[in-house]
């Protein structure tokens, strides 16, 4: 009787386990919620008929205070869905449901659900393997994109359980009290290199945060980002990844040495470094060489590529900080509009930070809003192309240099780091000195 049910469709799966679990759902509807909390997904059923029995129990369960849901009610629900065109396959009829009901096993639902999940994982793994093989043999094979896509697919092979995501508030008290009485250290914060900014951010950037650095062109976004990278990797030994889509690795290296050794950038570009310059570079060279600062200047960067690189460096180097220069230059996913594509990338960057418990700093261009204001000050709403960037960010820092608009400004050489958004904390404006000839911002509070 059961052999005529999609028999040619299934290569993987435990049909006996699926039959028993579908039957047990009718006899014990409460297992639907119970197993969902343990991470069971009815999509893992390989037989459509059993999956739809499960969905019918989910639908009917709200109308049953307790006890079993008999096959008559399930049959009515399935036939109603069939009449509406919601079920693509022919559902089990009442006779089949009657026979199915006899297979219920009240005490073993968890074991059978685990068995079905295990088989589904094996099927997904086999599919990823087949896809990887097909990609490797394709004439259009691209090592960066295809390997990243396969690694991303591998992440989806095993679904995480929802069981450990819900906690009673009382279980949070110990962590809250410990945090409240323990000053932050480099172990749980990434120092920014600016005393006042670190103080505002309770010690620096935190794991899981998405930080957006916004500015108009030529304000010094890359210089500021390199400053954060230098503070983390060179000064504090924090493993850092700098993804540059605008400057080459050699240009970044030159800027780092200029900033660290206080050697004029234009002297280095022209090969005019003096003996004193060389001595200063030599003194800083060991610290720079030992820094766990990884730089990538590839021409393209997509979210799957970034995710694959982050995953590898988290595992091999203990990565804690990622800087992307800059968002609008990333390879956008296909979407109905540029705004939707940017929104998707913004959300994925936040999820990346949260999943790997690292800080992600992303640079972003601002629109022309500041130039249309008398005081030229940027606002968070000036972030180009998508309000989702502002929504997803935990911290938004806007760069403003008065002398970029007025050379004779009384604040020439100064820069404002405007913390326009700080989720769960205060906002403020931090003043720094801009030393463009040394490719750096200098902490005025420290001096």
Structural class: alpha/beta
* Helical segment count: 16
Net shape:
elongated
Instruction: Quote the distance from N terminus to C terminus.
Output: 84 Å
Helix/strand order: HHHHHHHHHEHEHHHEHEHEHEEEE
**How is the main sheet built?**
9 strands, mixed
How would you sum up this structure, described in words?
The longest helix has 29 residues. Helix 3 crosses helix 4, helix 6 runs antiparallel to helix 7 and helix 7 packs across helix 14. The chain has a nine-stranded mixed β-sheet with strand order 3-2-4-5-1-6-7-8-9. The protein is α/β, with parallel strands linked by helices. Helix content is 45%, strand content 12%.
Short descriptors:
447 residues; alpha/beta; 9 strands; nine-stranded mixed β-sheet; single chain
Topology of helices and strands:
Blueprint: H1 15-27, H2 31-37, H3 48-61, H4 71-84, H5 94-101, H6 109-137, H7 143-155, H8 173-181, H9 195-200, E1 210-215, H10 221-236, E2 240-244, H11 249-261, H12 265-269, H13 275-290, E3 293-296, H14 303-317, E4 321-325, H15 338-356, E5 359-365, H16 387-392, E6 395-400, E7 414-422, E8 428-435, E9 440-443
Parallel strand pairs: 1-5, 1-6, 2-3, 2-4, 4-5
Antiparallel strand pairs: 6-7, 7-8, 8-9
Helix pairs in contact: 1-3, 1-6, 3-4, 4-5, 6-7, 7-14, 10-11, 11-13, 14-15
């Amino acid at each position: 009787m059961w052999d005529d049910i999609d028999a040619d469709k299934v290569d993987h799966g435990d049909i006996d386990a699926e039959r028993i679990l579908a039957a047990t759902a009718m006899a014990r509807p409460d297992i639907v919620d119970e197993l969902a909390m343990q991470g069971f997904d009815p999509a893992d059923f390989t037989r459509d008929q059993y999956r739809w029995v499960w969905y019918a129990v989910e639908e009917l369960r709200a109308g049953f205070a307790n006890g079993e849901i008999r096959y008559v009610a399930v049959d009515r629900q399935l036939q109603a869905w069939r009449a509406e065109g919601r079920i693509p396959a022919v559902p089990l009829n009442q006779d089949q449901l009657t026979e199915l009901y006899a297979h219920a096993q009240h005490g073993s639902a968890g074991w059978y659900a685990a068995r079905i999940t295990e088989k589904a994982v094996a099927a997904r793994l086999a599919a990823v393997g087949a896809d990887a093989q097909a990609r490797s043999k394709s004439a259009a094979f691209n090592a960066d994109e295809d390997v990243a896509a396969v690694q991303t697919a591998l992440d989806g092979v095993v679904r995480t359980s929802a069981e450990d995501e819900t906690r009673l508030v009382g279980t949070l008290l110990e962590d809250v009290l410990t945090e409240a009485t323990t000053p932050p250290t480099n172990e749980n914060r990434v120092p920014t290199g600016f005393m006042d900014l670190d103080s505002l951010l309770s010690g620096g950037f935190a794991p899981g945060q998405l930080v957006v650095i916004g500015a108009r062109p030529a304000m010094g976004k890359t210089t500021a980002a390199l400053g954060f990278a230098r503070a983390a990797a060179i000064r504090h030994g924090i493993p850092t990844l700098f993804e540059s889509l605008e400057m080459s690795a050699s240009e970044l290296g030159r800027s780092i040495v200029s900033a660290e050794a206080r050697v004029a950038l234009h002297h280095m570009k022209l090969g005019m470094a003096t003996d004193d310059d060389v001595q200063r570079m030599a003194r800083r060279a060991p610290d720079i060489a030992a820094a766990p600062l990884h730089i990538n200047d590839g021409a393209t960067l997509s979210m799957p590529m970034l995710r694959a690189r982050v995953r590898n460096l988290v595992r091999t180097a203990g990565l804690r900080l990622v800087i992307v220069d800059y968002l609008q230059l990333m390879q956008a996913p296909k979407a109905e509009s540029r705004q939707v594509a940017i929104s998707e990338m913004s959300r994925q960057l936040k999820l990346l930070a949260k999943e790997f418990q690292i800080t992600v700093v992303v640079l972003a261009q601002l629109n022309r809003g500041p130039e249309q204001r008398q005081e030229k000050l940027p606002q968070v709403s000036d972030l180009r192309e998508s309000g989702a960037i502002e929504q997803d960010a935990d911290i938004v820092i806007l760069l403003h240099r008065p002398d970029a608009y007025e050379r004779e400004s009384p604040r020439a050489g100064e820069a404002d780091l405007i913390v326009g958004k700080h989720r769960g904390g205060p906002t403020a404006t931090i003043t720094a000195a801009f030393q463009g000839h040394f490719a750096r911002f200098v902490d005025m509070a420290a001096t």
